[in-house]
């Protein structure tokens, strides 16, 4: 075996379901010299990163930090810390990521009570309330805020209200929502949230910001069984990420990825969270009008459509793979394929974070027009 | 809250227990434009990265890849995939990381049979054999090759031979050994190994290269219970990282960190694995002579001392914290504190990967001399 060549990737425009385009500012920040994970200067950066994440989540939760792994690990971190074996959890399923939550709940020896709705539609509040009424021993309600597989926004505020009403914790997948649409952790009284770095925050993939309410922390601290994963046990991680005093080594933090996250959060703060949501909405309007002009139809009703993830029906007779191949080859443009039930039936056009700008939308529409003509 | 300033870290020399200094080549590679995790060009890079990892591990194992999280998650990936609840595992403990393995084994509902040796000494082959003899139902032998908390090299080759002899799988922590000292996965018939990106590979922290033998894969495929972690389930991950055909989405790979790992592995291949081991040995000799000249003593016997992690006894009357603070402040030099039983008693001087070079060793010795005078 000879040494292979350096890897010089082309400059794609990433308009799929994530990762989204990463700003050169973030890439540059990430390439700065590595510090030790217990270096006092790195500890300061951790504190600043926590503050910025609190801003992004609209929370004052003390336990707010990035899990050192992708969103799927953030999902496990939230579920495995809050739920003990044998406990019952209502899980709302209307796409791939709801199903993934079910799979996680089962693997930790807990019992999912599944509330299912069709792909492309919202989770039914009535069904959720019926499930909460039917079982008196539900400890948590878990759902996906922005379902990346379908482009549907579930009504997080109303769902969390139901959770409070029925005295159970709420666990919210905000992987694709954080930074893209309104999410108000404290106001909506959410108990645990996990997100991803590579969606509307436009950071590199590999981190999962999480936040836990005081109720959630109380539950974690009063568990009678250990969290199944040592790596994801918040009781231990808090010794490293927690406020004040001496930081205890738990695992080696992905130092350079945290430089990147910090820079992407700085960009969010500079723009302002509400302005960022509005930019996603504006981008969506531009894209939706352009798609309509091309005769393409969105799969999700306007009332609960995600601006940052546009699910487009593939017209009859059009070759899904060939169109995406052409976009990639001729325009260096990535859009997403359908997942699960939607495979072969839809494209997923992401307008996330740094990628959500008129230039990219113009380019995407023009490239789609070429590929379809 | 105002937007905080950009984070511009100083250029430290990292000679602690890891992360080690990262080459500018690796940092530059990491800052290249992000590709989608299913982009055909990224899939090619994944294949090349696998080949380079096979080279580094000295294995032809098909299931060789980086876990998308730090070494602690690699530990869980190996243990949780190979061991089912209720099964018995011999775990060798002579430092922090052996204890962490025990903790992991317990949390997955399996039963650790602990073989304990004093900190700073090797795992006793006799004790391990006694444990394997005493229990007829041991499914695996798990141990740490290079114990980062003590600077001890355990005899991986002999331990794996015992595992084969007693028909159980071997699970090896090679976090600090990979690239620094001899490790021959196929020749030693190791069944599962996990490592870390941030030690002798001198890549950024956040990835855990792993490799599984065919025997290990057979065990994973014939499990009667699901792996507790969906995120770390190799049965699923292999659909994304496996050879050939269509790659199925599992989780979003940390794309840019894999650029970095690829570049660090290219550097290893250019130098040559054996030459890299020799460089660590040479660096250790230089450091050991210099420490002796300063009147400092190494805590581990020469026969099983790790060249890449030198554990130095703190002389009586010397203020541990103050010396490390001075090194950091006046020389931008990080060395490691003692962990666990060794806290306050030793320093840990890492000579790992890119950091292991005469210039750094000269600097470290001179800075220590100043700090101690």
From TrEMBL, chains A, B:
Supply the InterPro entries for this chain.
Answer: Aminotrans_V_dom (IPR000192), Aminotrans_V_PyrdxlP_BS (IPR020578), PyrdxlP-dep_Trfase (IPR015424), PyrdxlP-dep_Trfase_major (IPR015421), PyrdxlP-dep_Trfase_small (IPR015422), SP_NH2Trfase/AEP_transaminase (IPR024169)
In its UniProt entry, the species of origin is given as Alteromonas salexigens
Recorded hits in Pfam families, A to Z, give: Aminotran_5
- Enumerate the spans annotated as Aminotransferase class V domain: 34-338
State the Gene Ontology terms under molecular function: transaminase activity
Is ATP-binding one of the keywords UniProt gives this record? no
Query: Which Gene3D superfamilies does the entry mention?
Result: Aspartate Aminotransferase, domain 1, Type I PLP-dependent aspartate aminotransferase-like (Major domain)
Q: What is this protein called?
A: Alanine--glyoxylate aminotransferase family protein
